[in-house]
């Protein structure tokens, strides 16, 4: 009987996983959602520039695989840059819509004629395809979600590398970096709390809603808030922002199941931490990019010249132009008051769930440096005797809500406008940052 229960539970989980996949692929089968991504200038132009930059080593006269090809735009970029053959893998019905583009290339009007006989569309998940595909020189993909990992498409990208990429082949993108920082955002926190308080009413059209108040509070404060935020709300200097690299040439599938990001923030301003702000960066580098730091070029006179080959980069930082990924804020149920010079240390842990996403647990501790305000934070040396408080927070990355209140304008903002304050001895130095 117990075995039957276990089997039934496993079958239910598989069914739920399948249903999540169906919903996921249905979403991306709509042209309007593909348009949203295509019209993201930063995303589309960066991929075009990266594929063009990789042309000589990785695209021209090479076989390419496009994992999760969607609209097919990356496949088209690859063909434009001389790819001899592109295998476009797409599980949604966008595969048939992409085929319309390819058929038109050979039609009487020969629209996009350069695509003719260059791309083979294979409908299905990369993990399920049965076609006999040879190993390829390069894998391109846009497998990225909120905070890099949401939707878990990266696992398909890694699977494709392990099964289909030639030794020394190219992955584009090659590196993803998750960035986390403490931020102040009293407006968002108060707005969220006000929404939760709705459920504290004991006479709403004659109904007492208060039995649901705890559930509402939990729901609102475990839901990540997607949307751009003011970069000046970050309460650390840049060097103290937590960064976690995912090297797509080396990372294993198992590594993506349980991601642990160390946190070690040296607090710059006295103020209130209301949330953790998150974003990601990507690079498009060659395999073992160190071997290509100096790239030889023959100039017009036949003389060999060299220059540094720097990977194309994509950033979703709050200081960079906005993308459709935006940023994400993880609100603390109880804000944390901090003083300049204190240190917040801990771990941001992400564990996969059955919703094509991650359950997140963060444990942080607040420390007061014991050596009169001078910390060894950069070396990670924090004396436990200086511990002030510890707290644990939870969020569900798939339970996202959206907030578009930030206008993007912050040039006239000063720290005090955000209720952030420096010690008096640093005030004059800080003011120079805001003076022309």
Please state the CA-atom Rg, rounded to the nearest Å. 25 Å
Q: What is the tally of helical segments?
A: 10
At the fourth level of CATH, the homologous superfamily of the largest domain is Hnrnp arginine n-methyltransferase1
Count of distinct strands: 18
Order of helices and strands: HHHHEHEHEEHEEHHEEEEEEEEEEEEH
Strand residue percentage:
25-35%
State the name of the first-level CATH class of the largest domain: Mainly Beta
Instruction: Label the overall shape.
Output: globular
Helix proportion range: 25-40%
| Integer tally of domains | 2
How far the N terminus sits from the C terminus, by CA atoms, comes to: 76 Å
CATH architecture of the largest domain: Distorted Sandwich
Per CATH, what is the topology of the largest domain? Hnrnp arginine n-methyltransferase1
Average pLDDT, all residues: 89
Low-confidence stretches: 290-294, 372-380
Q: Structural class, judged by helices and strands? A: alpha/beta
Largest sheet: 7 strands, mixed
Q: Can you summarize this structure?
A:
This protein has 436 residues and is of the alpha/beta class.
């Amino acid at each position: 009987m117990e075995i039957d229960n276990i089997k039934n539970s496993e079958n239910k989980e598989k069914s739920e996983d399948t249903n999540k996949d169906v919903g996921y692929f249905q979403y991306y089968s709509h042209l309007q959602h593909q348009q949203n991504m295509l019209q993201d200038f930063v995303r589309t132009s960066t991929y075009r520039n990266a594929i063009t930059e990789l042309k000589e080593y990785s695209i021209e006269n090479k076989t390419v695989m496009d994992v999760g090809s969607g609209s097919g735009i990356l496949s088209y970029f690859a063909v434009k840059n001389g790819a001899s053959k592109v295998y476009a893998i797409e599980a949604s019905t966008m595969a048939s819509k992409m085929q319309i583009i390819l058929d038109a290339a050979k039609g009487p009007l020969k629209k996009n004629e350069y695509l003719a006989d260059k791309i083979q569309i294979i409908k299905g998940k990369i993990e399920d395809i049965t076609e006999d595909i040879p190993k390829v020189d390069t894998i391109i993909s846009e497998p990225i979600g909120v905070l890099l990992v949401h939707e878990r498409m990266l696992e398909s990208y890694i699977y494709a590398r392990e099964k289909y990429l030639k030794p020394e082949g190219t992955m584009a993108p090659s590196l993803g970096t998750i960035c986390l920082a403490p931020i102040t955002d009293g407006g968002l926190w108060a707005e969220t709390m006000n929404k939760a308080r709705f459920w504290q009413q004991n006479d709403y059209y004659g109904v007492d809603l208060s039995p649901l108040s705890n559930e509402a509070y939990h729901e609102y404060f475990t839901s990540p808030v997607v949307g751009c935020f003011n970069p000046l709300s970050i309460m650390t200097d840049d060097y103290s922002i937590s960064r976690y690299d995912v090297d797509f040439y080396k990372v294993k599938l198992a590594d993506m199941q349980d991601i642990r990001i160390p946190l070690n923030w040296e607090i710059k301003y006295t103020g209130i931490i209301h949330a953790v702000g998150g974003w990601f960066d990507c690079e498009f580098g060659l395999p073992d990019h160190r071997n290509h730091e100096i790239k030889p070029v023959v100039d017009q006179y036949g003389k060999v010249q060299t220059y540094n080959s720097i990977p194309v980069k994509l950033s979703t930082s709050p200081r960079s132009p906005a993308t459709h990924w935006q940023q994400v804020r993880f609100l603390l149920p109880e804000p944390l008051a901090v003083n300049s010079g204190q240190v917040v240390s801990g771990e941001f842990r992400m564990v996969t769930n059955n919703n094509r996403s991650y359950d997140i647990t963060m444990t942080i501790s607040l420390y007061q440096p014991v050596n009169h305000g001078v910390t060894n934070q950069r070396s990670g040396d924090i004396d436990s005797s200086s511990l002030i408080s510890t707290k644990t927070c939870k969020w569900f990355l798939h339970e996202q809500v959206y907030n578009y209140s930030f206008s993007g304008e912050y040039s006239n903002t000063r720290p005090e406008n955000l209720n952030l304050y420096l010690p008096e001895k640093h005030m004059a130095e800080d003011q120079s940052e805001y003076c022309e």
